[in-house]
Write a structure and sequence with these properties.
The chain is mostly helical and 204 residues long. Helix content is 73%, strand content 0%. The longest helix has 24 residues. 17% of the residues are buried.
Length: 204
């Protein structure tokens, strides 16, 4: 790793707020507790020791990725890559081929393509970040309502109607298809906020 990349990574961690560090530490402690209990009780959901350890590493990388992504920080992709690859290994080990194929053939390539485009459009002053747009108050409200509404509908269908639980795979498939359609024709370096701005809020 050269000096520029190392300095950008240091800046990425320095810009995190104290409460973000606190949330991150809490999540990592929970993951560490689960890993420790798995070793002490000898039952980490049937995972071999090496898979339990790399799952913990994946969890740590996933936590860091979440905070960096929220700040449009390019460093998130390094941690996202580790997180995604380890999850794919876990899925392959347990022969969950459908989701494993999704991780290997869609999310991992998309991760590298997005990494390239984000790096290509760096902020002139904060070089560890990509250029990004912020949602307006109205757009944030609409997004919040969509998320809450979707969660309620999902709960009603899958929990209140047990006979329809087998349709869970359909909802996941629709979610993936919606994501692919929404990104088609647009550069992958755009943040989620920018994508929503260009696709969902042109009318406002």
């Amino acid at each position: 790793m050269d000096d520029v990349k190392l300095n950008n990574l240091k800046k990425s961690f320095k810009e995190l707020k104290w409460y973000e560090y606190l949330m991150g530490v809490i999540m990592i402690i929970i993951a560490a507790k689960a890993m420790a209990e798995g070793f002490m009780t000898g039952s980490s959901n049937g995972n071999p020791a090496w898979l339990t350890v790399i799952n913990f590493i994946s969890a740590v990388c996933g936590v860091i990725c979440i905070f960096f992504t929220a700040k449009a920080n390019i460093s998130n992709f390094a941690f996202a890559t580790v997180n995604t690859i380890v999850y794919a290994i876990y899925l392959v080990y347990w022969h969950i081929w459908g989701t494993a194929a999704l991780e290997i053939f869609f999310y991992i390539p998309t991760n590298f393509i997005s990494w390239y485009h984000w790096a290509k459009h760096r902020d002139e002053e904060l070089t560890q970040k990509t250029k990004a747009k912020k949602l307006t108050l109205l757009q944030n409200i609409v997004c919040t309502l969509i998320v809450i509404g979707s969660a309620v509908v999902y709960h009603v269908v899958l929990v209140s109607y047990p006979r329809l639980k087998h349709l869970g795979f359909l909802f996941h498939s629709l979610k993936l298809n919606a994501y692919i359609i929404s990104t088609r024709g647009f550069e992958l370096h755009r943040t989620i906020g920018s994508m929503l701005h260009r696709n969902l809020f042109k009318r406002f």
